[in-house]
Amino acid sequence: MYPGATEFGFELLVCRWAETSWPPEASDGPESDAAVLVSRQLGTRRRRWDTIVVECDPAGLAARARFGERELDSDLLHVVRNAPEEWAWYRDALPHPGYPWRYVRAAVHRAAGRGVVEKRRRGNRIEIRRVAPYPDWVRRIVAIENKPDLDASAARALSEQLTRDVETALADEVWVATHATGRCVEPALLEDIPVDVGILAFSFDADAPGDGWADASVEWHPSEVTPADAERDEDRRTTRLELAERAYGAGWRSYHETMRPDCRHFELRRFGRALVPHCAAKARPQTAAECAGSCADFEPEPPVWRTDGWPIEGGPGKGLQALLHGRREWVRERTTDGEKRVD
Questions:
Q1: Helix (H, G, I), strand (E, B) or coil at 333
Q2: Opening angle at CA 137, ends 133 and 141, nearest 5
Q3: pTM of this prediction?
Q4: Does 3-61+136-251 carry CATH code 3.30.530?
Q5: Whole-angstrom Cα distance, residue 174 to residue 197?
Q6: InterPro entries per the record (predicted)?
Q7: What residues contact 149, with CB distance under 8 A and at least 6 apart?
């Protein structure tokens, strides 16, 4: 059964396409050498996007790996980005954060515990030293809103949000992804969407070979909305870096952390080059909202599943979680070394 009939399933397919095929082939610019990180349901306190594509400098992304697989939150970034090359008292080495130093001290201890800075005590002072320079690894951030059925009412609901995205310019580029209809003029082109926002029309075919399983047609090219003073806007740079760090740490496959793979009905099925969740009880792909402990069809895995060839600490659900976690890890490694891996 086609998983893209719901917005959740469509979003997963778009994310998988972006991992393997970004940027769109019809882009006007030269072919990009950027490494790509993809995340879903990510944003700021005021705005959350369906899909985020972080275009990275390959060498910078490889250098970022020195600081571990987990994200660096805003407090840790303050420490890591400003840690000195030689030993220094942390209050001399770091700029004033705008909040009490005791929170910085706690962040220093956390950073040292994770091995992203070195720490030592000299008398009653805590000194720090960097383990490596924090790299400039983020080139561009692209935001995508996924609306499989972009009718007039959906476009009206999106228009205000997209206009705000263009005006705030936290992302360098904004797109809307929708289903292709095959008409001479895609209906999305006739809807009330800001002119600076690009439009991608998708067709998916699970039986097509290789990358043919997903076809993304650029119906409208987006405008670059990066402000002219972007390099001097430290608040914008910091917010974007925090967003990129969250994408680095989470990845889009994190849906298995909010759904219930420990249910006996939870399955993963291949669609093209994507692995998407499927509910055997409902006999169809489920949404993230449906797949919860409150679901009437939820049944825990039988205990015998956890002893018959599976690790004692978990059954097939743990195996699915490990599989998706492992896919997230090799995607990060693949983008770091610049290779395209087919799975």
A1: helix
A2: 150
A3: 0.88
A4: no
A5: 5
A6: DUF5787
A7: 178, 179
